[in-house]
Design a protein that fits this description.
32% strand, Rossmann fold, alpha/beta, 6-stranded antiparallel barrel, globular, Elongation Factor Tu (Ef-tu), domain 3
Length: 294
Amino acid sequence: MSETGCHDPFPRVAARARVISNRQIAPLVYELVIGREGVARSEGSKPEGIPAPVCGQFFMLRARPSGVLLGRPISVYRFDDATITFLILKKGPGTAELCDLREGGLLDLVGPIGNRFLSPDELVRADSPLASSLPAHRSLRVAVIGGGIGVAPVAGFALGLADKSFDFYASFRSTPYGLDGIESRANRLVVTTEDGSAGVKGMLPAVFDPSQYDLVYACGPTPMLRYIKESCASVGGVGVAGSNAGSNPLAFLSLEEHMACGAGACLGCTVRTVNGNRRCCVDGPVFNAAEVIL
């Protein structure tokens, strides 16, 4: 079991929802907003309300009607009392159907699923098993990192942190997106693009120095997460889980894995860890970087 949470402790539903809005915000990227009140799935039945997620969780989404059998795992970007917002990258037939939905359209969902990011305040509490890995004599230096569509869950999480308490890094191939409100809340916002169209030309290693941080939260493609894990582990010359506690940034990674059931039954999203195989959907998607093998 991951140190970041326990097995699926949050209530989930299988429900139908109505699209409030759906708009393209970057090439192949759409911002989909659904209502939380739910829609009756059959005549005479009552609609199932959708529970509030927590930062780091996701839903399995499938458009109605659909030509695909299974939902697609989509991380929560933002939510409030009435709506949930997702950022969706148009990649295959399932995500294409979701991106083609219009206001008033319907989708089926299952969720919220998975564990969550633990806040800095939670991690430094006396009863936290990870408190000894963090400095107690000063404010934590926090980095939040998003790569591509992985910016969605970490941006939502960052907006819940104290103002100016974190630096935010966002890396894209080209056009940035999903950063609304981040610049005003972050101590520093650093954007990189591979094509140089915005921010610093290059990738995350061009701008990120792990030695400047005590705590790192990240979501993005596996090569980026592998770099973050390895670079954080190299600070001070020992691994993240080594005996030199406090010299290495404590890093939490939200993994992007292919999923089928979202319930932990199919084992299609198996992740290797130092404690054996885990299921990304219900044991994750957030893992301590010291545990996961990338």
